[in-house]
Structures are given as structure tokens and as C-alpha cells.
Specification:
The protein is mainly β. The chain has two helices and 14 strands.
């Protein structure tokens, strides 16, 4: 698989000013977020490996390319206790890792509040038999609830139309991009029983 290089930006946050609020930024250099973005020092989050015995699992990587932190305030749902803890925060220009796993299928939903804004990034995912993996992602204004009912609603594309700020996709599709104001998120997922999801949040 080829490596995609993207541009990193330096950003200056201004006070929130309604729906037209934007993160101010200027381009300073190029980098590869998934290879070069460091993990937060002292964190013990990890990815599951092929030696782990669960039939279905999903490794999750979250890369924050903003200059404000992402915060998860214990807002997390999973159909199994076989999981690493979702990181409570992802600091600016840092990457965090975790995993969820189960022997029948994986269903999980979690969210991150974007500091200094009224926005939350939400993602729900499923790892199922017969390479039937899928995910849905959206930006919402706070507050946000993540539970089994909300997961089913978000993962049902018949319940809502695809907007710029929310999308549903199967793992066989290419990288999906959602946007609200000038904040974007890229999400990609693999279609194996031991799947992986990569998330990158940034501004333009």
C-alpha cells in the first residue's frame, strides 16, 4: 500500500463565534500523520496483535492534527468488555491507539469533543463475519450520547441522508471525509476479521 503524505498546519484559535467560527491556520510543513505523529508520552494504550485470541477485533488509531486537544469524557459504548480503554484525550499533534474485541462481532461507538469549540466528533463501527465491516462518522454539537440505541441509529443509512458532516460507509469503500465549518475528519477501515480503523482530524 502506498504512503500518502499530507500537509500539517499551525493554527490559532479565536473565540467561538456562532456557526461561522473557523480555526485559523497557516501552512508550515509537510508530514505523514500516521507514521510521524508521536504518541503521547507515558500512555500505555496499545493495539491488539495476531496472537490475541479474539475472533473479531478492531485496532483504532486516532490522529489529532489540530492545535487543540480532543477529549472523551467517558462517553463510550462497546458490546464487549474485551477492549483497551478509549484514550481520555488526544493532545494536539499526537496520536493515540486502542482496540475493541469480541468472539461473535464487534460493535462500538465513541466520541471526542473538540476543545474551544461546541463540536464533537462521533464514530460508530462494526466488525462482523463474512467481511461485512462498516462504520459511520459525524460531527455534532454537544451534548452527545453514545449507547446501543444511538449506535443502531447512526449505523442505519436508511435513517438519514448523507450530508457533508456525516457519512456511512462499508470497509470496502475508500477513505471517507466529513466536514463541518473548516474542520475535517478522514476515516478508513479494513475488511478483515482483525480490522483496523484510522481516524485523522484536521482543519483547512
Amino acid at each position: 500500500r502506498s504512503v500518502v503524505h499530507v500537509e500539517i498546519f499551525e493554527m490559532r484559535i479565536e473565540p467561538l463565534a456562532g456557526p461561522n467560527f473557523k480555526l485559523k491556520l497557516r501552512k508550515i510543513e509537510k508530514f505523514n500523520p500516521f507514521r510521524n505523529t508521536p504518541e503521547t508520552p507515558g500512555k500505555k494504550s496499545r493495539l491488539a496483535t495476531e496472537t490475541d485470541s479474539w475472533r473479531f477485533l478492531c485496532n483504532i488509531e486516532i490522529t489529532n492534527c489540530l492545535n487543540v486537544k480532543l477529549a472523551n469524557k467517558k462517553n463510550f459504548y462497546c458490546n464487549s468488555e474485551n477492549n483497551d480503554f478509549i484514550p481520555s484525550e488526544v493532545l494536539p499533534f499526537r496520536r493515540e491507539k486502542c482496540f475493541v474485541a469480541n468472539d461473535t462481532k464487534v460493535e462500538s461507538m465513541f466520541c471526542y469533543e473538540i476543545d474551544t469549540t461546541d463540536l464533537t466528533f462521533v464514530i460508530a463501527l462494526k466488525v462482523e463475519p463474512n467481511k461485512n465491516n462498516s462504520f459511520a462518522a459525524e460531527f455534532l454539537e454537544r451534548p452527545v450520547v453514545t449507547d446501543e440505541t444511538e449506535l443502531k441509529a447512526l449505523m442505519d443509512p436508511k435513517q438519514w441522508k448523507t450530508h457533508l458532516y456525516r457519512k456511512y460507509a462499508t470497509a470496502s469503500e475508500d477513505v471517507q471525509v466529513i466536514q463541518i465549518r473548516n474542520i475535517l475528519a478522514e476515516v478508513e477501515m479494513t475488511d478483515e476479521d482483525h480490522s483496523s480503523v484510522k481516524i485523522r482530524i484536521y482543519a483547512v
